[in-house]
């Protein structure tokens, strides 16, 4: 039985607990959320993982695994201290790692605690292929993200374009993954994941589109190098609970937890 503590109880966290409530090999013992969100989290947790306690920090507990499904702030607040204490961690807010120095801090904390932090693939696929291709040498990685106009609300695109009346696909950003992550931090997880697996934040090229013709979060990757090349298009259905988040992100967390908990890993 794998004893897991979960940070966050929003669209991803609740989705993960919902799927795993019938898995006898995974137990959620703690769910960590900020004080202000505890009441709401308690009501969600009472049906999805009734044995779990809702807390605002991990305290002295030592889960087998701590998984972050919360947001950028949670990495320095909860993941780094847990790694230093030797607790294995998984992270889904990969966009946070575009902050200068944070990847190094994460690695140093895991080394100090003699443990490991796993960065999950989330809404994108082929991270295994890209990371393997990097070993032979990559020439180019181009990422195109395309989402319905409403998914770009509360981003700089909202002041530059009238998202409510867009009639055709409109490129709202072109530049490096580093710049994309700076301007669109809540939509930067895929760009940051591709960068970490591949050519890094400065060499990974990004184009972002607001497209009234789509209802899904469409991620396209074009990679080439010594291995040859690949093109990948993911058409991610957004979660009802948070349209910025593709459902595949939830499944990627469930898969990663299953791979730790079950005898067979794939
Ligand atoms: N790697 C990937 O492909 C993807 C990653 N994400 C990232 O996953 C994270 C969670 O996404 P959603 O579940 O859709 O968000 P959400 O907004 O639905 O839920 C966030 C949850 O985290 C909690 N929370 C917020 N700040 C916290 C903190 N400092 N400490 C502890 N708990 C905290 C909130 O109370 C809430 O329960 C976001 O950072 C998002 O950017 C989202 C989609 C894809
Ligand atoms: O599709 C998703 O779930 C999220 C996304 O685009 C990102 O954060 O890069």
UniProtKB/TrEMBL annotation:
Presence of the UniProt keyword GTP-binding in the record: no
Swiss-Prot/TrEMBL catalytic activity: L-aspartate + NAD(+) + H2O = oxaloacetate + NH4(+) + NADH + H(+); L-aspartate + NADP(+) + H2O = oxaloacetate + NH4(+) + NADPH + H(+)
NADP among keywords: yes
Domain Aspartate dehydrogenase: 167-254
Active site: 219
This protein's pathway: Cofactor biosynthesis; NAD(+) biosynthesis; iminoaspartate from L-aspartate (dehydrogenase route): step 1/1
Residue ranges annotated for the Aspartate/homoserine dehydrogenase NAD-binding domain, each copy included: 8-117
EC numbers, comma separated: 1.4.1.21
Keywords linked to the UniProt accession: NAD, NADP, Oxidoreductase, Pyridine nucleotide biosynthesis
Alphabetical list of InterPro entries matching this protein: Asp/hSer_DH_NAD-bd, Asp_DH, Asp_DH_prok, L-Asp_DH, NAD(P)-bd_dom_sf
Enzyme class: oxidoreductase
Name of a matching Pfam family: NAD_binding_3
Top-level taxon in the UniProt lineage: Bacteria
Note: The iminoaspartate product is unstable in aqueous solution and can decompose to oxaloacetate and ammonia.
Function of the molecule: Specifically catalyzes the NAD or NADP-dependent dehydrogenation of L-aspartate to iminoaspartate.
Entries under HAMAP family matching the protein: NadX
Family, per entry: Belongs to the L-aspartate dehydrogenase family.
NCBIfam families the record matches: PRK13303.1-2, PRK13303.1-3
Record's protein name: L-aspartate dehydrogenase
Taxonomic classification: Bacteria, Pseudomonadati, Pseudomonadota, Betaproteobacteria, Burkholderiales
């Amino acid at each position: 039985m794998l004893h897991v503590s979960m940070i966050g109880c929003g669209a991803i966290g609740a989705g993960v607990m919902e799927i795993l409530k019938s898995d006898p090999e995974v137990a959620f013992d703690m769910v960590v959320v900020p004080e202000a969100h505890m009441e709401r989290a308690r009501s969600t947790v009472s049906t999805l993982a009734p044995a779990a306690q809702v807390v605002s920090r991990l305290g002295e507990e030592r889960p087998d695994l701590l998984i972050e499904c919360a947001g950028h702030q949670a990495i320095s607040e909860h993941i780094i201290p847990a790694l230093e204490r030797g607790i294995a961690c998984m992270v889904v807010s990969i966009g946070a790692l575009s902050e200068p120095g944070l990847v190094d801090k994460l690695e140093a904390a895991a080394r100090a605690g003699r443990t490991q932090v796993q960065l999950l693939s989330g809404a994108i696929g082929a991270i295994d292929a890209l990371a393997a291709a990097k070993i032979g040498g990559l020439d180019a990685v181009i990422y195109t993200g395309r989402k319905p106009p409403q998914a770009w609300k509360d981003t700089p695109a909202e002041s530059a374009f009238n998202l409510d009346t867009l009639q055709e696909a409109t490129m709202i950003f072109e530049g490096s993954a580093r710049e994309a992550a700076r301007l669109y931090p809540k939509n930067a997880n895929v760009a940051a994941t591709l960068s970490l697996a591949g050519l890094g934040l400065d060499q990974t090229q990004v184009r972002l589109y607001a497209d009234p013709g789509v209802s899904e979060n469409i991620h396209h990757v074009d990679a080439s190098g010594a291995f040859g090349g690949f093109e990948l298009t993911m058409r991610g259905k957004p979660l009802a609970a948070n349209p910025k988040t593709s459902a595949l992100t939830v499944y990627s967390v469930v898969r990663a937890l299953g791979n730790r908990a079950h005898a067979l890993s794939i």
